[in-house]
Amino acid sequence: MKTAAVVAEYNPFHKGHEYQLEMTRNAGATHIVAVMSGNYVQRGEAAVFDKFLRASAAVRCGADLVVELPLPWAVSGAQTFARGAVSIADSLGCVDMLSFGCECGKADMLQAVANVLYSAEFEQHIGGFLADSPSFASARQRVIESILGSEYAALLESPNNILAVEYIAAVNLYNSLFELNAVARKGDGYNDEKYSGTSFASATAIRALIRNGDDYSSLVPLKAKELYSGDFSDESRLETAVLYALRRLSVNDIALAPDVSEGLENRIYSAVREACSVEDLLEKIKTKRYPTARLRRIILSLFLSIKAEYAQGTPPYIRILACNQKGKEILSAAKPKVPVISRASQINALDDRAKEIFNLECTADDIYALSFSPARECGADFKAKIF
Q: Which CATH number fits domain 3-103+160-233+313-383: 3.20.20.70, 3.40.50.1700, 3.40.50.620, 2.60.40.10?
């Protein structure tokens, strides 16, 4: 038995994801556990299909066990997102391999970048580049170029490479003895908004096809498409609620959100008083220093009452979203460092921090239910049956 972990959003599960799982099997994995974001994803958006449907599609198409990356980590920046996900894989106590998709497909190069980014040498150099760089990301890339060369620095221009570096750094942080398996991404780029005609379309392009009512059946595995329906989330239905929630906040309230620093709370507070749409709000806040993806995560965190403190440390439990027979074998082999729950009622036996994170998740999921037409009722987290 050789168990691999993958970190995913499956928003939605498509043929590129299927390919990654196939390559993970080819690398020797007999069992695969996916650590998957719930109803909100790292781009600061609501997922197109709900987490239980997406988890079921993943199990149909190659995964054996799907567990949830709790909300505060799922909607965080790359470092916190990766640390939360890798922590869950590590906490299962039976994972042998971490398999991840990336643009370069070279684990050794990504490992070298991770080693430098979290070294004393990096700390000695970064200050000298920050003063004349438009952002920390730009300064970071210049440090890597100065130490490792331009080929390594170029890795940090691609989103999946950046996440892969953070996965590796998290493996190092937790002293996890995971074999690293880098799967080179095929087809369209992660952020490509339009389908180019390849067999591997981006999830971004597929979501656009879904929401426009266009045919996307050739871009996702048949077993997944059988679960998908016309009933998808549309976060525009939440827009008035988002603006309402943010207009109620004080400057001090805004300052408690993740990634808010250097007086950004004042900029957000002023923009909220003028903006009449979320896109207008983003336009009023964004600068070269604050990219749109980061701002979307901040706005979502403010809307859902996620405080920076919630994602400190590691997830306090492992929640099962979907499972097949091999998934049960993973659970049988597990030596978990944190509680594993398959039913919402099991949270009652956990500590106060776990209850707080879980209640935050449930409230956010009840809000997510309003993004469907017709709106769904509350309580989906308590009605799901895994076994």
A: 3.40.50.620
Check the CA dihedral 336-75-60-230 and report its sign. positive
Q: Is the dihedral of CA 194, 198, 203, 208 positive or negative?
A: positive
∠ at Cα 47 (374, 343), nearest 5°? 85
Determine the pLDDT at residue 288: 77
68 forms beta bridges with 36, 319
How much is the pTM? 0.94
Which residues, 6 or more positions from 374, have their beta carbon under 8 angstroms from its beta carbon? none
**Does residue 155 register a pLDDT over 90?**
yes
**CA–CA separation, 333 vs 197, rounded Å?**
42
178 φ, ψ (degrees, to nearest 5) = -85, 135
Q: How much of the chain is helix, strand and coil, in % rounded to 5?
A: 55, 10, 35
Task: Measure Cα distances from 358 to 162, 244, 350 in Å.
Answer: 28, 24, 10
Please state the domain extents for the chain: 3-103+160-233+313-383, 121-157, 236-309
Distance (Å, whole) CA 2 – CA 97:
8
| E-state strands within the chain | 3-8, 31-37, 40-41, 45-46, 65-69, 97-102, 179-184, 318-323, 340-341
Asked if residues 77 and 40 have their Cβ atoms less than 8 Å apart, the reply is no
> CA-to-CA distance for 220 and 202, rounded, in angstroms?
11
Q: What is the largest CA-CA distance in the chain?
A: 58
Confidence of residue 279 (pLDDT cuts 50, 70, 90): very high
